Amino acid sequence: MTPLLELNSLSCGYDNAVIVERLNFQLQSGEIACLLGPSGCGKTTVLRAIAGFNPVLAGTILQNGQTISTVGSALPPEQRSIGVVFQDYALFPHLSVYDNIAFGLQKHSGAAKRQAVAELLKLVELPDISARYPHELSGGQQQRVALARALAPKPNLLLMDEPFSNLDTDLRRQLALEVRAILKDQGIASIMVTHDQEEAFAISDKLGILAQGELQQWGSPSELYYQPVNPLVAGFVGKGELFDAECLNETSVRTELGTLEFAEPFGAQSGKRLSLFIRPADIRPSHDSGSVMATVEQKEFLGHSVVYHLLLPSGRRIESEIFEPLMFEVGSQVSLHVAAHRPIAFAR
Ligand SMILES: Nc1ncnc2c1ncn2[C@@H]1O[C@H](COP(=O)(O)OP(=O)(O)OP(=O)(O)O)[C@@H](O)[C@H]1O
């Protein structure tokens, strides 16, 4: 199937300053993707290149198999069937909600335009506010209007740059799920830029980790979580720490956490040195005998979980997060069990 969007060895940036290089990914029709990465890594720059606002410095962008950007030639943004929602909503302050949304419906006649705006307002669950102005709306309402305006011309692809970053945590989670439902309902593909890993996991079919000027990995959220290609990706999609490990056989290793046995083999020979990435949720304190003893230095009760700050015999401090009301006192000795079924191991 021809992808809706295809980036081939794309380099993009500003005035010949290359910000992102050798970018390759494909997006199928109706798929929702997120670009996640540290501040300044070039996420917005990539969106702007896809939208046609920035030139490409090498490589190509194809939409439905047609080249829309290559070095020295680019289809104008308005001919791309790509909608854009920016972080600051960018609503026109002097236009009502109705006129903001109708702005994207220049080709519609009066009655068709009124009907389309009404349908869009219903879609974003704001049926009664068409006469209001942007300053009379909450942040969440403004964001819904911005979404309705971007959806009005029925784009094939919607680009969203940190669309929920001005909203509080509960609202952004709720709106992210609503937006996902709307995009799926309308069959519109999307690429969203975010800093927020949980939001990216909640909304996306595909996730790309952009860092150090390159796309580190592109795949489903679970692929990135369970099979990260490098420690950078592993650290971006969830908390965790690297531990030096020496393979004792196919399934066991020696580490600062003691000798660990895993259910699945590492594919590495005895004596081989690896880095293991272990998440706090995979380290479980108990009173039974475990792989190593540790001292509880602090505990944080977070409601749904408890995070223990533990001191290992090696002097290293680590965290363990458990989701049951198991209580260990600060200052007590606990033994640790590492429970990762499938180890995340990197060659050293
Ligand atoms: N108009 C511009 N001209 C030159 N350099 C720019 C311009 N806009 C951004 N940059 C630079 O490009 C790099 C990437 O910026 P970009 O906004 O794409 O990052 P980002 O990953 O979206 O960051 P954030 O998460 O903080 O929004 C930064 O070093 C930035 O300073």
TrEMBL record:
PROSITE patterns: ABC_TRANSPORTER_1, ABC_TRANSPORTER_2. GO terms for biological process: quaternary ammonium group transport. Pfam families: ABC_tran, TOBE_2. The keyword Cell division does not apply. GO terms for cellular component: ATP-binding cassette (ABC) transporter complex. Residues 5-237 form the ABC transporter domain. PANTHER family: SPERMIDINE/PUTRESCINE IMPORT ATP-BINDING PROTEIN POTA (PTHR42781), SPERMIDINE_PUTRESCINE IMPORT ATP-BINDING PROTEIN POTA (PTHR42781:SF4). This is ABC transporter ATP-binding protein.
